[in-house]
Design brief:
The complex is a heterodimer of chains A (343) and B (890). Helix content of chain A is 40%, strand content 15%. Chain A has 343 residues and is of the alpha/beta class. The longest helix of chain B has 23 residues, at 437-459. Classes of the chains: A alpha/beta (343), B mainly alpha (890).
């Protein structure tokens, strides 16, 4: 019988994901990943939306190629018309299927493929789809269309309205699905795509400051900034982004420590050319190798310490934390000095 | 209680009245005619009816009720045989008892009811109920409730078959609902059945209205009272019911409605008692006492009137007088808790919360199942900051009174308290949302302690501490905390030792200035404790606003065109009558204008007599002196002279503003001159401009014409022509604080011309006129940034952040400019604020705060922050370097 009064205060965002990053985002450096990105921009309906949607795709492509070193021939943008700047081909279902077939041919078997679906979504008769030229592809049809990619790590980010049902329809082991809305009923225009593209444009979304941007970080950033947008504009939020990557089709809002969703997205990472230069390359000498190993060991110790945090006083915890971090800082300085980065 | 269908026989029971002048008609026709007259309030037609033989009792009832409703109590008594009639006829004994009870003859009433019962008269059951009701507050209370309980069997046996009997059942069940609230549903059914049996009878409908009111469903109550008043707009009982519902709803019409009832019956005890209570709420003690005494002249045992009478003594600190009234009640109703409960509520309206708690407890000692009083006791404990005890009482109250929305809302709010944190400072307990502590906590601590120090220095008085300050991130929650219901039209409230207010997050940016509100409410705490809660409301409100201005000229309400016009046209109360403007406003917005006007009283007193005189007023109120006495003693004039002197002060102080906004330029004249809304609907064509030009030519001293012409020309893209009119408007009313005033227009003109420094200066001036300016300093900051004026930008951003700190972009810009200026204090504040806003890039937020703390010299705090950053992001190179640097620094 108790009444719940809603209170939507501005400027309040969740930081739960930050804790998750400390457990998921600290994997040892992986070899540079072969990444392909396909932007699928649907029909705008009017010039304003066409410009906005294509603008997001172009912004994302720009950041991916310039900041994150994704070769431009591995970023493909399908759009309403090839007369629009940046559009490589029309986003018709057959073109989409052809593009997937091309990726199946040209990409490595362990490549990672990111699809970003931008536009107006629709949800009718329990079917969600992105509005594209010609006949739409429903979420279920997208699932079939992706089959040629086999074992490749595929991620789908649908930033359209009514995109929620894609999470369940596309769920598969090892596949990350991010949608801008929680359900097909959230039909209003979305802002998530704007912030998803923005995540690739600066340091702010690199939440663990490791010089890499994971899909999980981009999701957390875009979701948080979308929430801030609605709060600061004094609007009720009409979209609630979600993520699923444990294959169960049950997407969640915010990945949490100890949960299963978010783990795959944390390993789908974009690496800046600077950071990539040191990743996977053979060590220049044994000292460097030793330093890298020691750094990895300290990072492992840090993870263990964080796991014991609740058992310790804040003072003791901070003292141990500082001790480890100082070691880390000194070795990091030494390593960068050897690489010519200075101390 | 199992209900059954309506009883046809009851209809027959009401068809025998025989008006004398239409005796030749059939009984049905006659009855219909007389009853119609009664229902429609044609009292004379009812009184003209003569005895009707075997229907004597019914006719007598109608006659007696008419006489009671119209206030002819002596005639009513005569109609039932006079006060000293021996051995009343059992047939009319019950009606006689009702009349005697109404006029306070309890002995005679009891005898009559007993006679009816002993003779097993047809309406003996009702007499039995009345006897039980007379005993329900006595020491044989349990027996009375046994009688009430017997009415369930009476009903279930099918014996209750007249409207009066069904009403009696309903009343009995209503009393029983104290132990089982679900029985109110059965009471409702019985009332409904009574009303269905005799749809024209006003009594069941009024009783239904009262039941709905008792269960806080005033819309339904209005419907029931309205149904009676549709037939007889002068029915005093229905009017009193409506007035009570209006009082519950906080509708200022309640007093007028109660007075309407007195037009029909100037001695109506219920109406008089209600008038007394309403008057007392507005601090009119003498008038309230007179009204209560008038009610008691009719019925010396009227509990409602006795309760208000007791309150008039209590609120004047005349405890002997109060106890005398209590003794009067104890003599016949020692188990009646309503007196103390009523006085408690009236004490609350006088801001005497601690006394209200004591009274509430006394009420419950007498009558433990007075659930509403228990819940209210809980709410008053909450107001005093006694959260656990308060919650327990509200919960208990809600259990017994589950219809009570205040209790329900309050308990819902208390359920949210785990989401709050209490910060302790030297003089305060600050209770605020946990997720706002990082951002807002330091600012609240600082503002509260600054206010404390300033007010202690000014008043030479230190209230009991700690004072509890509660901030709510939802206006609804603040409202529930204050009133138990939503919709309070305020930003903050002081209960004395506890302040409650909106957090800045509760409202849109620029809606209010939380620091100013906190200062205002804390000033009330000083006033209340200094005066031992005797300070009149107008005095405390005005003085609190004066204190806001003393702290910061921008704070508090600002004079407006509306204020000057209202004052000039005589719509604002005189000094001696300022409370009226607060408790019974006569036009929208008058309360706020009264605050402002009252605040000028203290500008005036402080200017001419010094602040010591203001303090002396508070001391005087503490010593139970009236405002009249204090004005005489301290200002050396009577109230009339004080009214005139203050009026002269205002007219002189704001002579220019009065002249440019006054009567001769009121809305009507303006519409006539300017073509009304043709212009003000946003038209910017030449015809509209020409109309305004003519208006300005006719009234060059009109602020509004000059401003309207300037704004219209500006909107029409003619800034050079607009400028002189905007400047003229500014000269006519330099303190016009609304954001669309002349300074805003001038800033726009300067900006358009590329005169950025002048634009920024105009915005700075405008920003300093209003405590809620938000967009204005933001716009100024942007211009200062263009100018490379870091200091100006910092100041503007700080002013905006003081009004509304919950904006990441603002705080980020503020941090950046503070860093450029190497202003570590501002830099740290901004960086703390950013962290408090929960940015997505949390590692960077900690790192940046660490840098600012390092610059401020707080290396320990910087270390903590850099650890927090690296905890999230161990690979954060810059943070790792800062950690090493800090260790080197330490």
């Amino acid at each position: 019988m108790r009444r719940a009064l809603a209170a939507l205060g501005p400027g309040r965002l969740t930081c739960a994901a930050a804790a998750l990053l400390t457990t998921l985002g600290l994997a040892t450096p992986a070899a540079a990943q072969e990444i392909w990105v396909v932007n699928v921009v649907g029909l705008g309906g009017d010039p304003e939306y066409t410009d906005r949607f294509t603008g997001w795709a172009n912004e994302l492509e720009d950041h991916l190629t310039t900041r994150w070193g994704v070769p431009s021939d591995r970023v493909i943008t399908l759009g309403e018309s090839t007369s629009i700047a940046g559009v490589d081909a029309e986003s018709r279902r057959e073109t989409i299927e052809q593009t997937i077939a091309r990726l199946a041919d040209e990409s490595a078997a362990n490549a990672r493929v990111l699809f970003v679906l931008i536009g107006h979504g629709s949800y009718r008769n329990d079917e969600a789809s992105l509005n594209i030229p010609g006949r739409d592809l429903t979420a279920a049809e997208w699932n079939v269309a992706l089959e040629p990619l086999g074992e490749r790590m595929v991620a789908v980010v649908n930033v359209a309205s009514s995109s929620g049902p894609f999470a369940e329809a596309l769920a598969a082991t090892g596949r990350t699905v991010i949608t801008a809305t929680r359900s097909g009923q959230e039909r209003n225009e979305t802002q998530f795509g704007r912030y998803f593209a923005e995540a690739f444009g600066g340091d702010a979304a690199d939440l663990d400051k490791d010089g890499r941007l994971s899909l999980l970080e981009a999701f957390v950033y875009a979701r948080s900034e979308t929430a801030r947008y609605y709060a600061e504009e004094g609007l009720l939020a009409t979209e609630h982004a979600q993520i699923d990557d444990d294959g169960d089709g049950e997407a969640i809002d915010v990945p949490v420590q100890g949960g299963t969703d978010g783990a795959v997205a944390a390993t789908f990472r974009f690496t800046s050319p600077t950071a990539a230069a040191g990743v996977g390359a053979p060590p220049a000498d044994s000292t460097t190798a030793r330093l890298e190993a020691e750094i990895a060991e300290i990072e492992a110790d840090l993870a263990i310490l964080r796991g014991r945090r609740d058992e310790m006083t804040q003072e003791d915890y901070d003292a141990e934390l500082e001790s480890l971090l100082v070691d880390l800082a000194l070795k990091n300085r030494e390593l960068r000095g050897r690489a010519g980065g200075g101390a | 209680m199992t209900m059954r269908g309506t009883v046809g026989a009851a209809v027959a029971a009401v068809v025998f009245a025989v008006p004398a002048d239409i005796a030749a008609q059939s009984a049905d026709d006659v009855l219909a005619s007389v009853r119609q007259a009664y229902v429609e309030g044609r009292w004379d037609d009812v009184l003209d009816a003569t005895d009707g033989g075997e229907v004597r009792a019914l006719l007598l009832k109608l006659r007696a009720q008419t006489l009671l409703l119209t206030g002819d109590y002596d005639a009513a008594v005569r109609a039932v045989g006079g006060r000293n009639a021996a051995a009343p006829d059992p047939v009319v004994a019950r009606v006689r008892g009702e009349v005697l009870l109404e006029v306070g003859d309890r002995v005679g009433a009891r005898a009559a009811f007993e006679a009816s019962e002993a003779a097993n008269a047809p309406d003996a059951a009702i007499a039995r109920l009345r006897l039980a009701e007379m005993a329900m507050y006595s020491d044989v209370r349990a027996a009375a409730f046994d009688v009430f309980d017997s009415f369930i069997d009476f009903y279930n046996s099918g014996a209750a078959d007249t409207p009066d009997e069904l009403l009696a059942v309903a009343r009995a069940v209503t009393h029983l609902s104290r132990t089982n609230p679900a029985l109110l549903q059965d009471a409702l059914r019985a009332f409904d059945e009574a009303a269905a049996l005799d749809p024209l009878d006003p009594e069941p409908r009024i009783a239904l209205g009262d039941l709905f009111r008792q269960t806080y469903q005033t819309p339904n109550a209005y419907d029931e009272y309205g149904a009676v008043l549709d037939r007889n707009p002068r029915h005093p009982d229905a009017l009193v019911g409506r007035a009570r519902a209006q009082r519950f709803d906080g509708n200022p019409d309640a007093l007028a409605t109660a007075r309407q009832a007195l037009e029909t019956n100037p001695r109506h005890p219920g109406a008089l008692a209600l008038v007394a209570a309403l008057t007392l709420e507005a601090e009119g003690t003498r008038e309230a006492r007179e009204a209560a005494e008038e009610a008691l002249d009719v019925d010396a045992y009227n509990l409602e009137a006795l309760s208000v009478l007791a309150a008039t003594y209590f609120l004047e600190d005349d405890l002997a007088g109060f106890e005398r009234v209590v003794d009067r009640v104890d003599a016949f109703a020692p188990r009646y808790g309503g007196l103390h409960a009523t006085v408690a509520e009236l004490a609350v309206s006088h801001r005497k919360y601690r006394e209200a708690v004591e009274l509430g407890r006394a009420a419950l000692d007498r009558e433990p199942d007075l659930h509403e009083a228990r819940g209210r006791l809980g709410m008053n404990l909450l107001r005093l900051g006694e959260i656990d005890a308060g919650r327990a009482e509200v919960e208990a109250g809600f259990e017994g009174d589950p219809y009570n929305p205040w209790f329900k809302n309050t308990l819902d709010l208390l359920d949210k308290f785990p989401e709050f944190t209490t910060l302790e400072t030297e003089h305060f307990e600050i209770f605020m949302p946990t997720d706002e502590v990082e951002l807002l906590g330091p600012l609240v601590r600082e503002t509260a302690e600054e206010a404390w120090a300033a007010l202690v220095a000014r008043y030479g008085f230190e209230p009991t501490s700690p004072v509890r300050v509660e901030l709510f991130p939802s206006s609804q929650d603040f409202s529930v905390r204050t009133l138990g219901e939503q919709g309070i039209g305020a930003l903050g409230v002081s209960f004395g030792p506890t302040l409650a207010m909106d957090s800045p997050s509760a409202r849109e940016a620029g809606e209010f200035n939380w620091r100013s509100v906190l200062w205002h409410e804390l000033a009330h705490t000083f006033h209340l404790e200094m005066s031992e809660h005797e300070v009149p409301r107008w005095f405390s409100e005005g003085l609190a606003m004066r204190e806001q201005r003393v702290r910061d000229e921008r704070w508090g309400f600002k004079p407006s065109v509306t204020f000057f016009q209202a004052y000039d046209s005589g719509r604002m109360p005189a000094l001696s009558n300022l409370t009226e403007g607060l408790v019974r406003p006569t036009f929208p917005g008058q309360v706020g204008l009264t605050y402002l006007q009252a605040s000028y009283v203290f500008d005036w007193i402080e200017r001419d007599w010094g602040f010591g005189t203001v303090r002396a007023f508070l001391d005087g109120y503490r010593d139970d002196h009236s405002t009249e006495q204090l004005v005489d003693d301290l200002l050396g004039m009577d109230m009339e002279e004080a009214d005139a002197a203050f009026d002269a002060y205002l007219l002189d102080r704001f002579a220019r503003e009065f002249a440019s906004t006054g009567d001769e330029l009121d809305d009507e004249a303006m519409e006539d001159a300017a073509g009304g809304d043709l212009v003000f609907a946003g038209r910017t064509d030449e015809a509209a401009i020409q109309v305004l030009r003519e208006a300005v030519a006719s009234f060059p001293g009109s602020f509004r014409f000059q401003l309207a012409l300037g704004q219209t020309l500006l909107e029409a893209g003619r800034p050079d022509e607009a400028e002189p009119h905007l400047r003229a408007a500014l000269d006519l009313f330099p303190a016009f604080a609304e954001p669309n005033g002349p300074l805003w227009g001038l800033a726009t003109i300067h900006e358009g011309r590329g005169e950025t420094a002048d634009a920024a200066e105009a915005l700075r001036r405008l920003g300093y006129l209003s405590e809620t300016a938000w967009e204005v300093p933001l716009r100024e900051a942007a211009l200062r940034r263009e100018l490379g004026d870091d200091e100006g930008e910092r100041d503007a951003l700080r002013r905006a952040a003081e009004v509304f700190p919950f904006q990441l972009d603002l705080q980020t810009r503020r941090a950046e400019v503070a860093e450029r200026l190497n202003d570590p204090v501002e830099w740290v504040r901004a960086r703390r604020a950013i962290l408090g806003l929960g940015p997505v890039d949390l590692a960077d937020a900690h790192f940046q705060l660490a840098r600012a703390l390092q610059a401020s010299g707080d290396l320990d705090a910087a270390r903590t922050q850099v650890l927090r950053a690296l905890e999230i992001a161990p690979s954060f190179d810059a943070a790792l370097e800062l950690l090493l640097e800090l260790r080197g620094d330490r």
